[in-house]
Amino acid sequence: MDKTHSRRPLWALSLLLSLFALIWVVWMWSQTERHYGEGTHLVRDATDLERVLAESDSIEFQKGESPYQVPTGLFIQSLAFNSSSDVNLTGYIWQKYPSDFPQEFKKGVIFPEEVNSSGTVLREEYRAQGLENGIDYELIGWYFDVTVRQSFDYSQYPLDHLSIWLRLWPGDFNNDERILLVPDLAAYAELGQHRFGLDQDLVHGLWEIDETFFSFNNVPYDTNFGYFEFPEQVQYKELFFNLGVQRKFINAFVSNLVPLLVVSLLLFASLMIVSSDEKRASRFGFSTSGVVGSCSALFFVVLLAHIQVRDQFAGSGLVYIEYFYLIMYGAILLTALNAYLFSLGHGRLGRWLQYRDNLIPKLAYWPSVTWALALATWMKL
After folding, report:
1. What does the pLDDT average to over 271-294?
2. Closest to 157 (Cα-Cα) out of 268, 252, 260
């Protein structure tokens, strides 16, 4: 009875240390946020648009005359990841051409990042004439179905925030330095909201769309594409329509973290039955070979799950969730090693493990695992 009472403060301390580590992990999870690329100029309202265009730092403003501004808008009806780098988008895109837009200029839009271009659809659906802000426009609307290839950062999986973008070029490649696509902000009733331009029935799948926005990027090109009158390096101001998405954490939690939690509990159970007391060892069926065999089985369970995660991000570096698997490998190895050295009972290390029936490794298990997870989270997030 005395031994039991004397161990309670130690177990309470072990639990408290583990709880602090878990609270720190959850707090760091809550602080993850989306990172916008360098050189990205967000346009959420007319003030942002005026500020970006006032910089006049691209070739469209360096030809001695102002470019023709073509208001462009999008309405997204579906979004699907075909792979970790290919995204299919469908919906409607429209452009408003001012009345002074040169007749010899080609109208339309190009998706420069499209793949499988034979499957791309850009079908004109409607035309109209109208007056807006004192300017006479010709409105042309298309239905589009395009798959674009982008490089996403999955390093924070399963807490990743991605920006899916649709990069737009003017349809006239020969005169694109005279045409500037700008967001058609007047076309959206809910522009002040975080989300606009989305079908209400859009199926999100594994992702949750938490914001949409336009942006400009100054994209440099180190070639003149063979045109004689252009310098070798120019900058174009290109329009992007962005969808900010966040992975649905519950799906990744169930498929990745729950199995790892079960494995860690089974490892702890294997550690708890380690005992030099014959009655206790007989009651729980403790044997060194049994613990090593259990650790071997759990190792292959973790390994197979890790391979599935690695297959999803074959082209990426080490993602956040993989640190959990690496920590589990270490816990499995140390649990098996503890049972072996405890059974030997020789030397200073053996006597240290024998102290109060393997009490120190048992007390250290959860703090070691949880603080390893906390440190991995702090380094990766």
Report:
1. 79
2. 252
- Cα-flanking dihedrals φ and ψ of residue 23, to 5°? -65, -40
pLDDT exceeds cutoff 80 at 365 = yes
CA dist., res. 111 & res. 140, Å (int): 17
pLDDT exceeds 80 at position 315: no
d(CA 283, CA 44): 68
Name the burial class of residue 115, with classes exposed (0-12), middle (13-18) and buried (19+) by CB atoms within 10 angstroms of its CB: middle
Q: Which tokens go with 368?
A: 């070691």
Reported pTM:
0.81
> Which tokens belong to 220?
């440099």
Using the 8-state DSSP alphabet, how is residue 345 labeled?
-
Strand pairing of 161-170 and 207-221?
unpaired
Cα 99 to Cα 49: distance, rounded to the nearest angstrom: 22
Q: Is 102 helix (H, G, I), strand (E, B) or coil?
A: coil
* DSSP-assigned beta bridge partners for residue 86: 149
